[in-house]
Amino acid sequence: MKAYLNVLYDEAMKVKPDALIMSHTPHPYLADVLDMIRLNDINTGKDVTRAMTLRARVAAIACPDAVIDTDNWPMADKATWRSYVELQPELGVPSLYFATHIDSTQEPLTEDDYALVRESWRRARELGGKGAGRLPSEAKERGSP
Question: What superkingdom heads the lineage (predicted)?
Answer without folding.
Answer: Bacteria
